[in-house]
Amino acid sequence: MKAHPAIAATASTVLLAALLAGCTLGPDFQRPDSQAPQQWNALQGEQAASQPVAEPLQLRWWDSFHDPRLSALIEQVAARNLDLQIASARLLQSRALRSTVAADELPSVDVNASYSRARNSAEGLSDPSGKAGKSAFNLWQGDLVAGWELDFWGRVRRQVEAADASVEVAENDRNGVLLALLAETAGDYIQLRAVQHTLQVTEDNLKVARHSLKLSEDRQAEGVATRLDVAQANAQVASIEARLPTLQARRDDLINALSLLAAEPPRSLQSTLLDAGALPAPEQKFAIGVPSQLAERRPDIRQAEARLHAATASIGVAKADFYPSIRLSGSAGFQSMQLADFGNWDSRRFAFGPQLSLPIFEGGRLKGTLQLREAQQQEAALNYRKVVLGAWHEIDDVLRLYNASQLRRDHLAEAVRQNRIALETAQRQYVEGAVDFLNVLTVQSALLASEEQWIDSSAAVSQALVGLYKALGGGWQAFDKV
């Protein structure tokens, strides 16, 4: 009993499709387990004032500082930074490369046309012009040429899979650049505000030192103070004044650093950043997400996973090279020796048929390539584990640093309060003659040092929080992708 022609044709089509798509050599990529802990260890037993909570991570974390200038600056950097634009250009290159690789999945069609004026040798092989090499002739040719590789073993599919993974590598490289820029911008801004506050404290202390100088000069005029007291007071004023140029230079350096991040010329942000603003401070509660989501957020983990994916797919490409490749090709067109005859039915020509290429002896090249791809896949797998483990350590370290910074800041705040009381007491006792001027100078130096340390520690708390958000991989998702 013969099968119906339509059924036979359908069966042939299904069989061909199965042959073309059903065999893909090499291991299929399995997403590795990031082995995330159930909760952040540092969330347990913390006593600092500002506490992290395991709630969905705030992606626009810079807004939690409630500083409009910082938020606007970060938007400006994300829109204009040159390093980010370079990374975006690399991403576009990767996507373009993927398109060229994916083109092998489809047939190629070309049109060729040529004209030549030629003369063959009279002593050589047969002359297709029929003139036995005695005179020159014209040759007009035009062809439509098509070709398609039958991807029986999945070589092309694995190449496209590896190219897709390479695009993910480039995407996460860009995300990583953006994440680093956000953290660097916030860190420089916080440091700038800290320097400006230190400048203000130094200027305030300079006023106190000048008041003490006048006080000692008045007491010398009254005969109750010595020249030593005046000299010590003058030295104190000069010592505090010497701090100002360095702080001012540091302030200008930070403004320039922020200008560079925003792709602006030097000093371009002076008008908006020169005036001191409040030092960005964290909220008492802030969300840091859950550990199981970290692999989705951190660009370096996503990039390591994509590299592993690409390396795994490359094994399939190397294995497919051991098998024969089959390519269907054909051409149809016209050929004539006279332009008037070109295009006539009698000038037609065509050719079609399969091309088979089977590797017989490659001197170990194919085997060596396969071993190389397998070793590269092993390296990528180890690198993924290393990146993930490093991420857990980084987060744990930053959480502890954040809490330790808060405790240090709080202790220094108490030191500042006590030193201010001590200075007021020392100045009063000096006027009363109960202590000498050296006590006043010592206490004032201690106050200035503790105030500077308190400002630095307050900035360190905010910078540690920025580092924590960076370690958690938050922020880059808030901006449009390329």
Automatic annotation (TrEMBL):
Entry keyword set: Cell outer membrane, Lipoprotein, Membrane, Palmitate, Signal, Transmembrane, Transmembrane beta strand
Main location: membrane
Subcellular location: Cell outer membrane
InterPro entries listed in its UniProt record: MdtP/NodT-like, OMP_efflux
Native organism: Pseudomonas machongensis
First and last residue of the signal peptide: 1-17
Protein topology in the membrane: Lipid-anchor
Homology family: Belongs to the outer membrane factor (OMF) (TC 1.B.17) family.
Domain of life per record: Bacteria
Protein name as catalogued: Efflux transporter outer membrane subunit
SUPFAM superfamilies noted in UniProt: Outer membrane efflux proteins (OEP)
Pfam families in the cross-refs: OEP (PF02321)
